[in-house]
Write a structure and sequence with these properties.
This protein is mainly beta. The protein contains one helix and 55 strands. The chain has a five-stranded antiparallel β-sheet with strand order 1-3-38-37-36, with no helix packed on it. 54% of the residues are buried.
């Protein structure tokens, strides 16, 4: 049963100063509550409102001698439910609506029973279970996304003896299975991302033992997209991913037991750079802009040393931990100083908060002293506002665990509150359900445009498609790292997707991009009213801007042929055109408008680096073409076009400039 600490004094006031180091500017964090266990928890917990009461719950699994999945009310540590698996639970749980019923489920593998359970978030009852069969133990934390383009999520994970399973989220049936070599274990957490920008999500895993390879598999069927043999030893945890080199395409970052960190280009598995370490890198890497320089940094743990690398692979700082930190670091702004911090537990029983920009210790606490017994922390922290006070809290589990003498196992989960930081946290192992392990801030001023080619959109019974423009503008004074993703709201109110993304785009100040895309709607989609949703932000929960438009699936009519899947195609999001106008490429376009807002005439100015045929078009918010002010060949240099909107009502319009394969868009505001 949980014990709740009701004393309101700070930790130091309880004569525990020897265990506690607190920065002067920070509020005093303290233990809020704890929950006693008969074994530790390996991996990490997950946080989500699984019972729909508006408050978060914490879900985690335990090792031999306890062998439960626990769901605790995060505000006070009381138990919502528990589920006995009759075996060790080495893999971190996933909280996700896997069957699109608008209720969260808990998906958790039980390692030694070789079974994946999908549990009802409210009650903990089994919605479905799938066995991977002996001897396919599961240490791989599951990831989730719509991998086969059927509008419903799939769940992917690895097992012992080289297998990767992809399950249908609605019932746990096997969508596909890949075998990457029976002499290897796939214990890594899969990464889900569009590796090569083709609109198809892919899966990246790494081998423990065997050939020591990193594999990219196509998400729709498990076929091999590429593999790399660069690593020279085993990899236990999976990679993290983000656009590290700012080329508009993602990279995979993974640590290896050979002591090195490898950064692979996701499109083909080529090695971008490699950081040579000294001791093995068993812990997973984490990614964020830790020093507010507009670039991504990489946090890694080499045995007992925490290191941070620049986006080019140079060492920025190190911090010596008192023990091994095998589950890596979680990231959030814990002390509200607008600098991201690293939260990490180690097997010496300490939890530490370390400033991301310089490696200085902000706060630490010796939980082993409080526990009064061995307290190895082999569990990554989760970070969220547990109690609704608009400040961040931390939860982790420690103790002692052995498979040879499990009767000696013991453990405890601790919730720590009182941090001054607010904003987004770190809700699960590897940050999100696609295991990006990438934290992106939420302060960017981003303008998103979503413009259908025409309205209304009506899709015939046997399926069809529609066209649209999607654009982004960075109105922030600094560089922004923006994720873009698209979903569709179904007639039932459920949501399918992401249909696109999340696609990570690096945008310099003032940069704008626009892409022309097409979306197919399959014949199997139910008839009724839909909403097409575009989001820019930090996937999946932080929204900088969003736009929507409706479409309808009819019960009658025929299009150009039977359409099978939700597919989206068109201009490549990964092309490096999201650059600032000051640093435009030699053959890029630039478009500006002044005055803006305007009434009734606006000057549209653009610059050509070389002679070209140019089209300038004006659209309204519904994507309807209103006028073509320019369609002609222009010489290199500056050009000015005056557009009069005297006959148009006040509102938002878009100027769209196109020359060859290059495009540029400008949002216009007409006031009257």
């Amino acid at each position: 049963m949980p014990a709740v600490l009701l004393i309101c004094f700070t930790v130091c006031a309880l004569n525990l100063c020897a265990d506690c180091s607190i920065a002067a500017e920070q509020r005093d964090p303290a233990i809020a509550w704890w929950f006693d266990l008969n074994a530790p928890s390996f991996g990490s917990s997950a946080v989500g409102d699984i019972d729909g009461d508006g408050r978060p719950e914490i879900v985690f699994g335990t090792y031999f001698n306890d062998e439960h999945i626990y769901a605790l009310n995060a505000e006070n540590g009381t138990m919502l439910w528990s589920f006995f698996t009759n075996g060790c639970n080495d893999a971190s749980p996933l909280i996700y609506d896997v069957d699109l019923d608008n209720q969260l489920e808990v998906v958790v593998p039980a390692s030694s029973p070789y079974t994946v359970y999908c549990l009802n978030g409210l009650s903990g009852s089994v919605e479905w279970s799938t066995s991977t069969g002996y001897p396919n133990c599961i240490d791989s934390p599951p990831a989730a996304a719509d991998l086969d383009n059927d509008g419903r999520p799939e769940i992917v994970f690895g097992t012992f003896y080289g297998k990767v399973f992809c399950l249908n989220g609605e019932d746990g049936s096997i969508a596909w299975q890949a075998n990457l070599g029976a002499n290897s274990y796939i214990q890594s957490c899969p990464n889900i991302l569009d590796c090569d920008g083709d609109g198809q999500l892919d899966v990246v895993v790494a081998q423990w033992q065997g050939d020591c390879r990193v594999y990219a598999l196509r998400g729709n069927n498990g076929s091999v997209l590429w593999f790399s043999e660069a690593p020279e030893d085993w990899m236990y945890h999976g990679g993290s991913f983000a656009d590290i080199d700012e080329d508009g395409r993602p990279e995979i970052v993974i640590g290896c037991y050979d002591g090195d960190v490898y950064v692979f280009n996701a499109e083909d598995g080529s090695l971008l750079w490699e950081y040579p370490g000294v001791l093995y890198v068993g812990a997973p890497t984490s990614i964020a802009d830790l020093n507010n320089d507009g670039h991504m940094e990489i946090a890694l743990v080499s045995y007992t040393t925490l290191k941070v690398l620049s986006h080019t692979g140079s060492l920025l700082w190190t911090y010596g931990l008192g023990g091994s930190a095998f589950r890596g670091a979680a990231i959030a702004d814990m002390n509200n100083d607008n600098v991201l911090d690293l939260v990490i537990g180690s097997d010496d029983g300490n939890i530490r908060v370390i400033s991301g920009d310089n490696g200085h210790l902000i706060w630490s606490y010796n939980l082993e002293n409080h526990y009064g017994n061995t307290f190895d922390i082999d569990n990554a922290p989760v970070i969220a506002d547990f109690d609704g006070d608009d400040s961040l809290d931390v939860f982790l589990v420690g103790g002692y665990g052995s498979s040879s003498q499990p009767q000696n196992n013991h453990g405890r989960g601790y919730a720590i509150s009182g941090f001054a930081g607010a904003g987004p946290g770190w809700l699960m192992f590897r940050h999100d359900e696609r295991h990006s392990a990438c934290f992106t801030r939420a302060q960017y001023n981003i303008d998103l445009q979503l413009i259908p080619a025409s309205l209304p959109i009506q899709i015939p019974a046997n399926g069809g498609s529609f066209n649209y423009l999607i654009g982004l503008t960075n109105n922030d004074p600094g560089a922004a790292i923006v994720a873009v993703w698209i979903t569709a709201t179904l007639p039932s109110g459920g949501v399918t997707g992401p249909i696109i993304g999340p696609v990570s785009i690096n945008m310099n100040p003032g940069a704008s991009i626009i892409r022309s895309r097409s979306q197919s709607i399959p014949a199997g989609a139910p008839p009724g009213q839909y909403t097409y949703n575009a989001y820019a932000g930090t996937y999946p929960s932080i929204i900088f801007d969003e736009e929507h438009f409706p479409f309808e699936k009819l019960t009658t009519g025929e299009g150009g042929g039977y359409v099978c899947d939700w597919l989206c195609w068109g201009d490549d999001f990964y092309s490096p055109e999201a650059d600032s106008r000051e640093n435009a490429l030699p053959h890029s376009l630039s478009l500006s408008a002044f005055p803006n807002p305007f009434n009734p005439t606006v000057n549209l100015q653009f610059y050509l680096h070389q002679s070209a045929y140019v089209e300038l078009k004006i659209f309204n918010l519904r994507g309807q073409l209103l006028e073509i002010p320019l369609q002609s060949w222009k010489e290199a240099g500056n050009h000015l076009v005056r557009f009069s909107a005297e006959s148009l009502p006040a509102g938002v319009y878009f100027a769209f400039l196109k020359s060859g394969d290059l495009t540029e868009t400008q949002k216009l505001l007409l006031i009257k």
